[in-house]
Amino acid sequence: MRDKAWRLGPEHFGRLISVLAEQGYEVLGPQVDGPAVRWGPLTGPDELPQGIGAETSPGHYRLKQRSGPERFAWGPSPDSLKRWLHVPEECFVHAAQDNGAFHILPGEQPGAPPGGAAPPKFAFIGMRPCDLAALVRLDAVFLKGPYVEEHYSARRREAFLVVVNCTASLDTCFCASMECGPGARTGYDVALTEHTAEEPAAYLAEAGSARGVALIEAITAPRAEPGFIAECREACKQAAAVQRRRVDWRTAPAVMLRSFEHPRWEQTARRCLACGNCTLTCPTCFCVNTIEHTAIDGSTGGRSRVWDSCFTQNFTYIHGGSVRTSVKSRYRQWLGHKLAWWQQQFGTAGCTGCGRCIAWCPAGIDISEEFAALAGTAQGGTGA
Amino acid sequence: MKPDKHRPTVGIFKFASCDGCQLTLLDCEDDLLAVAGAVDIRYFPEASRNIGKGPFDIAFVEGSITTHHDADRIQQIRRQARILIALGACATAGGIQALRNWHDSGEYVRQVYAKPDYISTLKTSTPVAEHVPIDYELRGCPVQKTHFLEIVCALLTGRRPQLPSASLCIECKRKGNTCLLVASSEPCLGPATQAGCGAICPAMGRACYGCFGPHENANAPALAKRFREDGMSEPDLQRAFRTYNAWAWQFRKASEEVET
Ligand code: SF4
Ligand code: SF4
Ligand code: SF4
Questions:
Q1: pLDDT one-digit tens code per residue, A364-377
Q2: Mean of the pLDDT values across residues B50-73?
Q3: Contact A296/B167, CB-based, under 8 Å?
Q4: Does residue B188 have its Cβ closer than 6 Å to ligand 3?
Q5: What is the pLDDT of residue A382?
Q6: Same domain for A314 and A193
């Protein structure tokens, strides 16, 4: 389907949003919200950021005004799609006690919001290629293998994915080395690439699914010219070329195996706040805690799960105590899982190179720099 | 503790404190009737003149230990209580009044009271756990009523209470706030503070004050380093860590490392 390419002007962009809304999708997209670009309900293209970029460095994120017409130059938002597909908190068992008998109450349909009848149908407009790569990783966790996570599955099945290839990388991005960006490969319904040499910006649109083709046909966009296609592709290549950070993920299992007692872990643990921001902001970290609740009179109760972090003491708490009591062992576990052990579990690295954990770590700890220190390689990163 | 058989007896005690935590319990409103039905509240002078006697299945203790009399009384309460729960920043960390621990409290007494001779006080304000073993802590200044209800429900049902112990940032990120420290360099104490409040200040654009005290793995000196890099002066750094939970050792460590 890649041989089909269209050119979208601003009017098509508006129709893209309205057609998806008419098809019953809850359309979500990026918007400037205070000091960051965040995701929220999207009703028209005017709500998208315009002429807005972002500057990131370890522990820092700032929006920056840009002079061009670009709407997608802000890199990854602090939000990732896990907020909507693998929600922060969800009750999955409701129970009641009646004269000493215990009943599991019928819950909502899997994936439905509290009190809702059906799982939501989301259309994500403006997700990044690394966001898409993160979904592929969450799919491997939740959908592959003998146990399918039915809540995630219900929401994921419906989701319509419009990815926008990056033509501007942030300083913390290293998706090129992780082979997750800055251009999307597969898995999208529609992929857009922004052409900012004209004002207002135009978009190269490529379809990755039958419903993607149907959407673009419904908005009656013209075919893209070869020159336009080439310029869009070149801009995306440039975004890869400027990335200074890189992680040679294929070497990670070997590097980890020889680095268990590396002095770097202790040095990093002294900087680490054990705050968990890296894991919560990471688009592929999926761990949850299970919590139980009961009514005061014991008549009803339930079991929920909430986003958790491997940086807490309760994580891996088993009979007799916590498996990992030191921050050093927790950071080692986290980095090791992201870059190395995930490969053995799921066949890819667990990291997409989005750089969120670098920018949103209050201590400015940089996974790419940490890995370079363990691997003994030089690194473009600038962390303390 | 099984429901039906026996309504657990409860006592609610006060030491050096502002009563805000006890008021938070009274603020449970509709749930308060359910609690009063499920347990036998024997001693709660803040709420009732009906003063009953121990022993107590559960004793909630608000306030810090600041006098010789306090130090005796907390021993007596411990002896009468099966489960002792420290309530709020004063009881769990010594409270704002623990600022005296760095100074000469005798000097304060002489300045404040017309007849200082009548005042008998300890040199320090200390948490309950420095005097007797405790079973649970409800953190906060004031405590969260949801935590109070949770611990009562859990003890009645015989399950483990679900109380937060990790960082506020986890709660803040779940809620979906944009991080003030990273996006605006606001001196937010969240990365060193225990969750529990629902990240209400960051949700309103105000950096965390640390009401819930240090979290289980708090690395306050490393957070102080970040504040310093963002331009915070040494006196301000010390003030940031010396509020309601100043005497909690992790915050104490950060504030004592400050060069003033
Ligand atoms: S580990 Fe960091 S860079 Fe990798 S996907 Fe997670 S947040 Fe992004
Ligand atoms: S690496 Fe950074 S974000 Fe992660 S727990 Fe440590 S200080 Fe927090
Ligand atoms: S705003 Fe404060 S509490 Fe929230 S994530 Fe940032 S540092 Fe943590």
A1: 999 999 999 999 98
A2: 96
A3: no
A4: yes
A5: 41
A6: no
Overall average pLDDT of the B81-90 stretch? 98
Name, in order, each residue with C-beta under 8 angstroms of B178's C-beta and a sequence gap of 6 or more: A33, A34, A35, A36, A38, A78
Q: Which CATH superfamily is domain B9-157 in?
A: NADH:ubiquinone oxidoreductase-like, 20kDa subunit (3.40.50.700)
Smallest CA separation from ligand 1 atom 7, residue: A282
Taking only the tens place, the pLDDT of each residue in A185-216 is 999 999 999 999 999 999 999 999 999 999 99
Specify the pLDDT at position A96: 94
Asked if A308 and B202 count as a contact pair (C-beta separation under 8 A), the reply is no
Residue contact B226–A363, C-beta within 8 A: yes
Interface of A with B in 244-283 (CB under 8 A): 270-277, 280-281
Interatomic CA distance for residues A311 and B196, integer angstroms: 17
Model ipTM value: 0.95
Mean pLDDT of chain B: 95
* Residue A381, in any domain of the structure: no
Q: How far is the CA of B157 from the CAs of B1, B147, B196, in angstroms?
A: 7, 15, 22
Asked if the C-beta of A294 comes within 8 angstroms of chain B's C-beta atoms, the answer is yes
With an 8 Å Cβ cutoff, are A60 and B167 in contact? no
Residues A122, A265 within the same domain: no
Instruction: For residue A212, count other CB atoms closer than 10 A to its CB.
Output: 21
Asked if the Cβ–Cβ distance from B35 to A79 is below 8 Å, we say no
Look-up: residue for tokens 């306090």? B70
Domain of A345, in residue numbers:
249-299+309-375
Average pLDDT over chain A reads 95
The per-residue pLDDT for range A120-144, each reduced to its tens digit, is 999 999 999 999 999 999 999 999 9
Residues in A touching B170 (Cβ below 8 Å): 275-276, 280, 307-309, 312
Residues with CB under 6 A from ligand 2: A 272-278, 311, 361-363, 365
Q: Is the pLDDT of residue B132 over 60?
A: yes
Q: Would you say the pTM of this structure is higher than 0.90?
A: yes
Mean pLDDT of B68-94: 98
Q: How many domains does chain A have?
A: 2
